[in-house]
């Protein structure tokens, strides 16, 4: 084990890989700070490029962009009341009033310290929990994987959409799309409509980039550019650490909330930020300060949303279930590299796993360095971007990338098609993430179900007689019942 750790450290600190990490963290912060550009878009644009990169370079770059972009949204949220990413919306509630009161530097400093510490806390959780969970996951067979995938889908569509019906319809649509192609057992084409290319199924990369990146670019093109200027005299960034000891419990609690939310599939950093902020306000001795420049609220928001990063990687690496849209993209890149996430990864590619661990830890340390010394400059650069010109470029790269990577024009049109699907689904109030998650997990579910039905004494009772499978199914049923009750209550109130 020690040999693997030292080998992984040596890989990360190779000059080219470390420069890659530096550049990706800086680029991630810049992307996060730019209104309209999200971490999902940035990682999505990077995914096709991973064809030409080594597995170490690819995941070092994605880890840097992932961590950096989550933090970057706080810069423009604090300085201009323009959240660079949805995850920074809560940060703007407290950060902007602090800037108006002349405490913009303190707000930036608190956001930087909280983001870095929250992210590093989640990395500790990632390292220790991933190794233990991977060991447990080796005991999983077909019934466990089927039940786990079912639970993941249920959690995603019940918690990511206000409408239960729309959530389940979006998930069912994703599962239907996952069945396109040749049957897993017999070479019988399913839903190919005579299109030869569809016989191989719908590849994850063009589909997820289309649903999550291209659709988002379509929505962003029409939005007006931001034109606020950054305050030039921002002081007190570095000295903001003096406020942290007073709020250490809030920081720790919010980091725990963020890590837990990250582990649960589909919730993401925005949910973590709101939940931590709400808990901080509920338990605060000075709730009247909230929405008026509360340091407690700012610390809670930033520590929670950055703690999601490590937590979201845990189910992706150990179980092959993405924690959010960003890890969904990273999982696609992993499949491109010929790697299958899950327990086997910890046996066959343990050096890569530790490279990801160290890349995440170093990314959060670099966030601290860049944030303390370059945050105002990054804010100025980010606000120079005009969405009217930036988004068409992002759109072009998103569409062209998969077709170049796969070497066929078919994937160009497939990415466009899924872009329109994602765009219209979002406009109709359907959760796009549910479609993407079901598209990825559908084949795993089908394969697991078929292998489960080949076991001795196969039947419905088998799924409830095995402990892990039973826990997953019971949890899924609880989620369904709870949300069905919520749906009926909301309809009664409306009628």
The major pleated sheet works out as: 2 strands, antiparallel
Strand content: under 5%
Uncertain residue segments: 226-233
Can you tell me the overall shape?
globular
Helix and strand content put the structural class at: mainly alpha
Mean pLDDT over all positions: 81
The largest beta-sheet arranges its strands as 1-2
**Percentage of residues assigned to helices:** over 70%
General description of the model:
This protein has 495 residues and is mainly alpha-helical. It has helices at residues 2-12, 15-33, 39-46, 55-80, 89-100, 104-137, 142-159, 164-178, 204-221, 248-263, 268-283, 295-319, 325-336, 345-348, 350-383, 387-406, 410-427, 432-453, 460-465, 467-494, and strands at residues 181-182, 189-190. A two-stranded antiparallel ribbon has the order 1-2. A hairpin with a 6-residue loop joins strand 1 and strand 2 (189-190). Helix 3 packs antiparallel against helix 4 (55-80) and helix 4 (55-80) packs antiparallel against helix 12 (295-319). It is globular and about 70 Å long. The relative contact order is 0.19.
What topology emerges from the helices and strands here?
Elements: H1 2-12, H2 15-33, H3 39-46, H4 55-80, H5 89-100, H6 104-137, H7 142-159, H8 164-178, E1 181-182, E2 189-190, H9 204-221, H10 248-263, H11 268-283, H12 295-319, H13 325-336, H14 345-348, H15 350-383, H16 387-406, H17 410-427, H18 432-453, H19 460-465, H20 467-494
Antiparallel strand pairs: 1-2
